[in-house]
From TrEMBL:
It comes from Pseudomonas frederiksbergensis. It holds the Pfam family TetR_C_7. One of its GO terms (molecular function) is DNA-binding transcription factor activity. PANTHER family: HTH-TYPE TRANSCRIPTIONAL REGULATOR RUTR, TRANSCRIPTIONAL REGULATOR TETR FAMILY. PROSITE patterns: HTH_TETR_1 (PS01081), HTH_TETR_2 (PS50977). Keywords: DNA-binding, Transcription, Transcription regulation. InterPro entries: DNA-bd_HTH_TetR-type_CS, Homeodomain-like_sf, HTH-type_TetR-like_transc_reg, HTH_TetR, Tet_transcr_reg_TetR-rel_C_sf, TetR_C_Proteobacteria. Residues 32-51 bind DNA. The keyword Transcription regulation applies. This is TetR family transcriptional regulator.
Length: 202
């Protein structure tokens, strides 16, 4: 039973990677399931066995994107450690994830496919908002511990993530700039922390 399951998993992954390739090259609307099957080197039936529709295949790509986003959001608040040290760990992990080529590929596919579909875009934004909860939880815990001023944790989390994305995400997505070097990543994170803590730390 194990070997066939692994083959099935490999085919599923090949289909997803082929879909990302085709969506990036041709856009969501033009890409066909036939083309995805050909690129993945599997039958069209195999594609439909895994994904009953192109929308469901796209949804799986978004799920992978959200999983990548949330994987870096698991740091728990520590009352015994300096806020800056904890925040640095969270933000550096986020900036490094934003610079990952696989993550950027998924993000480009998602953004391109949602630009002309408000309904699809709204669903993506809603679900990504739900998934970016880790930093919000950390901020809320630090606030409850009396170390941050009264503030809206969701707003503050979005604010500091916006500072990161303006350097480490949007230039790469929209203008094709190369990813940030480790030194520049560190500079961006330290500057974002300076602004955040100057505004909100008690």
């Amino acid at each position: 039973m194990t070997a066939p399951q692994r083959l099935t998993d490999r085919k599923r992954e090949a289909i997803i990677q082929a879909a990302i390739t085709e969506f990036r090259a041709n856009g969501f609307e033009i890409t066909s399931m036939d083309k995805i099957a050909a690129t993945a080197d599997v039958s069209k039936r195999t594609v439909y066995n895994h994904f009953p529709s192109k929308e469901e295949l796209f949804a799986e790509i978004l799920n992978q994107l959200w999983a990548r986003v949330t994987a870096e959001q698991e740091a728990s608040y520590r009352p015994d450690l300096p806020l800056r040290d904890q925040l640095r760990q969270i933000l550096l992990a986020k900036v490094q994830m934003m610079g990952d080529n696989n993550f950027l590929d998924l993000a480009r596919v998602a953004i391109a496919a949602t630009i002309h579909s408000p309904e699809r875009a709204q669903n993506m934004i809603t679900r990504m908002g739900e998934r970016e909860e880790g930093l919000t939880v950390w901020i809320r815990a630090a606030q409850a511990d009396g170390r941050l001023k009264p503030l809206n944790p969701e707003f503050a989390a979005q604010q500091i993530q916006g500072l990161l994305k303006s350097f480490a995400f949007w230039p790469q997505i929209s203008m094709g700039q190369t990813g940030l070097s480790p030194d520049v990543q560190s500079t961006v994170v330290e500057s974002a922390m300076d602004m955040f803590l100057a505004c909100y730390q008690l």
